[in-house]
Amino acid sequence: MARNKIALIGAGQIGGTLALLAGLKDLGDVVLFDVVEGVPQGKALDLAELAPVAGFDATFAGTNTYDAIGGADVVIVTAGVPRKPGMSRDDLLAINLKVMEQVGAGIRKYAPEAFVICITNPLDAMVWALQRTSGLPAMKVVGMAGVLDSARFRYFLADEFGVSVEDVTAFVLGGHGDTMVPLVRYSTVGGIPVPDLIRMGWTSAERIAAIVERTRNGGAEIVNLLKSGSAFYAPAASAIAMAESYLKDKKRLLPAAVRLDGAYGLRDIYVGVPVVIGARGVERIVEVDLDPAERAMFEKSVASVEGLVEACLKIAPDLG
Ligand code: APR
């Protein structure tokens, strides 16, 4: 059986890490695409030279033309520019929206059967735009944010309780930004919900509130430490988990930004909710019960995503 093909659009910090993880996890052959000449080729060669040491047979190709992504099974998009000092949110939106137009056209032409995972920020608006510009079915175009946000939440909880990260489950709803909704009630250690652990004296409500806040600011915390650039290891690993669930039809239940067309009372908006990812893409959207406080936080988060989409539509009305 032929190996799967994974196309990475954007060969920057996350793109390079995605390629490395795809190789190490034997997910398939990798094509790195970037507009900068030499960078995808250089990273591909470096990774090909790593393969004999790590012991896998995937091939790596670097390219500056879209035809090389032809027939890809999975496309992961990190193309774009990060926000720089002095740049407004709308400036960033305008630049990355243009990038999504180019990337969408490339996917539409050369990889229309692929499962597409967008990572470029502002995430919820960019994945919405990418689904529009690529013309792929919504169940095949998702945004990676929830796996990362919940991984951060899980790590902080495991650290608080002094237990293995493996035994902590957590999930985060809503947009990828400081309005995200980490759901304490649905987060557990070995199956025990966090509110029960508070009652059992393992921690306090105040400490959990601080962890929720740290999760919301998880991206900014790393940006402040790195000084230039943003997180890349955990974002790459998160997208790879989603790609693996699709390629191996694992049907994992993961939080992802998906287009809602009725679920949660919302329509035609991409926002983070729990979904089942399998060979057909997004196979199921899971609608969990929200209490009034959670619903209010979720609605606030949705409103902020709607604001971003409106800003996109002002710049590119034809996407409407
Ligand atoms: N087409 C393809 N690639 C592009 C384009 C384009 N039109 N415009 C820029 N790029 C490439 C850049 O040349 C760069 O190599 O996208 C890459 C982005 O890489 P980095 O700047 O290293 O950013 P990275 O840390 O990988 O993050 C990528 O993910 O988490 C988000 O906010 C983050 O939007 C950012 C994205």
From TrEMBL:
Stretches assigned to the Lactate/malate dehydrogenase C-terminal domain: 148-304
Binding site for substrate: 83, 89, 121, 152
A Pfam family reported for this protein in Swiss-Prot or TrEMBL: Ldh_1_N
UniProt entry tagged with the keyword rRNA processing: no
Keywords carried by this UniProt record: NAD, Oxidoreductase, Tricarboxylic acid cycle
Stored InterPro entries: L-lactate/malate_DH (IPR001557), Lactate/malate_DH_C (IPR022383), Lactate/malate_DH_N (IPR001236), Lactate_DH/Glyco_Ohase_4_C (IPR015955), Malate_DH_type3 (IPR011275), NAD(P)-bd_dom_sf (IPR036291)
Domain Lactate/malate dehydrogenase N-terminal, chain residue ranges per copy: 5-143
Molecular-function annotations in GO: L-malate dehydrogenase (NAD+) activity
Superkingdom: Bacteria
Record's catalysed reaction(s): (S)-malate + NAD(+) = oxaloacetate + NADH + H(+)
Protein name: Malate dehydrogenase
Species classification: Bacteria, Pseudomonadati, Pseudomonadota, Alphaproteobacteria, Hyphomicrobiales
